[in-house]
Amino acid sequence: MNTLLTFSLFLLLTLSLAGSSMADYKATVFNNLPGNANLTVHCQSAGSDLGTQTITYLHDFSWTVSNLLNCDMSWGNVKGNFDIFDPKRDASRCAYGNTCFWRVKEDGLYLFIQEHKRLELQFKWPGN
Ligand SMILES: *[C@@H]1O[C@H](CO)[C@@H](O)[C@H](O)[C@H]1NC(C)=O
């Protein structure tokens, strides 16, 4: 076989493998709480503090992640801590267009599960 062709194929394969291992995902949080409540979200990923976001009613915010994304969330006097992206758990189950879509409601956090094509309750607010 032509050496140049073999080398080109090798290079192409290496580049595509390297590309897929560095895949970025998007974690989106949509505020669907009652009473126009604001949702406060404070996330950390891979030892970095990503700051605090206030997501107003019927708005969303997205983080681009490739590692675990852990967030403190609160509204009114309700508080919780959730892993909203975990590459082992989520890379295939919620990666619709590489996006983990969360809808935050009064009873808890719903995730769009690609295989079931619907939102499913994953985490309840503590105490609920
Ligand atoms: C939500 O936040 C916005 C902007 O930070 C603020 O103007 C609004 O009053 C807040 N709404 C409630 C219900 O606390």
TrEMBL record:
InterPro entries reported for this sequence: Self-incomp_S1 (IPR010264)
Secreted listed as a keyword: yes
Chief place of localization: secreted
GO CC annotations, alphabetized: extracellular region
Keywords for the protein's UniProt record, in alphabetical order: Secreted, Self-incompatibility, Signal
UniProt-listed GO biological process terms: rejection of self pollen
Signal peptide: 1-23
Annotated compartments: Secreted
Top-rank lineage group of the source organism: Eukaryota
Family: Belongs to the plant self-incompatibility (S1) protein family.
UniProt protein name: S-protein homolog
